[in-house]
Design a protein that fits this description.
Length: 300
């Protein structure tokens, strides 16, 4: 399956034997239509890497099925959790919650040789490299609030009045952390220290399920949903940690935006009702490297 190059009329030529760094997210393999798309995903060469930016599914066995399939086809698979992986749902025999559920998923990934946010960051040595591929797990802290709201409680009340309540409020248990925002703070501190320890000249590809900046949420049909989409604490990370690219999902609005000259690639497949309306073929991973000409939307 050829990779999406976001507006490129003709993708740049690849050197013989040079791999591609590609990305996809929000596979939601519980849907049979999406499961068939994942079953058909294949690299263009044996050297291609694939970033999977969260929301593979909610049931551990289905998540493992998808990652095992992809790990058997791509030279390297890098995974970050989305909010759906962290849900504890009735249909899943794995009843773990919160941190214990996340750690269980990390163990599953390690058994499949899939890179997680707890592992050493791999270095992409292909064209446009070297690049440190940094999978992040950061969650959100309710700071993407609507104008006029000054607290989490105020923002949640407005969202509920607008008919917007994320299912995380029912299925994503933060234990042993006291709240999802407390878990987010802990993850930010841990991740920031790891990124700060990189060599000062290392360029990165930052991968997180949620957008690192607020700008992409401004086109949400229900703007109140931005509460569950990230944290203001990472607004400058693409500059501080020398990002050559930022990869994210969650919004189900696949596109490439630019901020401070850095491409932010939303790479989601999404639900069948969403991708079924798109003109482009569904399930084509987005090429991150080698870089391809893209539709430019400047957020600076």
């Amino acid at each position: 399956m050829p990779y999406e190059t976001r507006g490129s009329a003709r993708p740049p030529a690849r050197r013989p034997g040079a791999g591609v760094l590609a990305a996809i997210s929000d596979l939601h393999v519980h849907y049979p239509e999406n499961r068939r798309i994942v079953a058909d995903l294949r690299p263009e060469s044996d050297e291609d890497w694939l970033i999977v930016a969260g929301d593979v599914g909610e049931i551990v066995d289905e998540i493992a099925w998808a990652l095992e399939l992809l790990a058997g086809r791509f030279a390297k698979v890098v995974w970050v959790p989305g909010n759906h992986e962290l849900w504890t749902v009735r249909e899943d025999p794995v009843r773990l919650r919160g941190e214990r559920r996340y750690r269980h998923l990390v163990d599953v990934c390690r058994s499949l040789d899939v890179v997680t946010p707890e592992d050493p960051y791999p270095v992409w040595e292909g064209e446009d490299g070297p690049l440190v591929i940094a999978p992040l797990f950061l969650l959100y802290d309710y700071t993407f609030r609507q104008p006029g709201t000054t607290s989490k409680e105020d923002a949640l009340e407005r969202a509920e009045a607008a008919g917007v309540v994320c299912s995380d409020e029912f299925f994503l248990d933060p234990e042993p952390h006291g709240s999802r925002e407390a878990w987010c703070r802990a993850r930010i501190a841990y991740t920031e220290a790891r990124l700060a320890a990189l060599p000062p000249d290392a360029r990165t590809v930052l991968v997180n399920h949620f957008p690192l900046v607020r700008d992409p949420t401004e086109v949400l049909w229900k703007p109140e949903f931005a509460l569950w989409c990230g944290t203001e604490a990472t607004a400058d990370w693409h500059r501080r940690f020398r990002a050559a690219a930022v990869v994210y999902g969650h919004l189900h609005i696949p596109r490439t935006l630019h901020k401070d000259g850095v491409p932010f690639d939303e790479v989601s497949l999404g639900y069948p009702r969403e991708w079924g309306r798109r003109a482009a073929p569904a399930g084509r991973p987005v090429r991150i490297r080698p870089a391809a000409p893209a539709r430019t939307t400047d957020l600076t």
